[in-house]
Amino acid sequence: MKMKIEHRVPLSRAAVKLLEGLPRIDGADLVFSAPRGGQLSDMTLTAVMRRMKVDAVPHGFRSTFRDWASERTNYPRDVAEMALAHAIGDKVEAAYRRGDLFEKRRRMMASWAAFLDKVESTGEVIPINKAA
């Protein structure tokens, strides 16, 4: 972590179910390990997205979450920022902030998972033909 402090992540039920269904490599402590062992590099997801010809970058997932939290929910800014492991406030505030808002973040991540699980249908598009 950039801030050099532990960052606990509350996982939704769907995330836990997905992780439990993954094959495990004997002797590996990591869920996603590098092919030759150890941690994946920070560029691994970028490389995967390029190979899949996805016109996006991994950081866009974080940005999408942040936009959702601010535009579609009433969760406090601090809860969303802490979910992203961003520093909150100045050094004085940081000195007094001991908690990690885990329970509030757990509820927010459950809402995020429910949002991602929804299939939104768009209205039917009816072409309007120009008069001849």
Layout: helices, strands, pairs:
Layout: H1 13-20, H2 44-51, H3 59-72, H4 77-83, H5 91-96, H6 102-117
Average pLDDT taken over every residue: 89
Overall geometry: extended
Biggest sheet overview:
none
Secondary-structure-based class equals mainly alpha
Question: Into how many domains do the coordinates divide?
Answer: 1
Q: Estimate the helix proportion, in percent.
A: 40-55%
The low-pLDDT segments are none
Counting H and I runs of at least 4 residues, what is the number of helices?
6
Strand content: under 5%
Please count the beta strands (DSSP E, at least 2 residues each).
0
**Computed Rg:** 20 Å
How would you classify the quaternary structure? single chain
The H-and-E topology, N to C, reads as HHHHHH
Distance between the termini: 63 Å
Structure, described:
With 132 residues, this protein is mainly alpha-helical. It has one domain (13-117). The protein contains 6 helices and no strands. The chain has helices spanning 13-20, 44-51, 59-72, 77-83, 91-96, 102-117. The mean pLDDT is 89.
Which key phrases capture this entry?
132 residues; mainly alpha; 6 helices
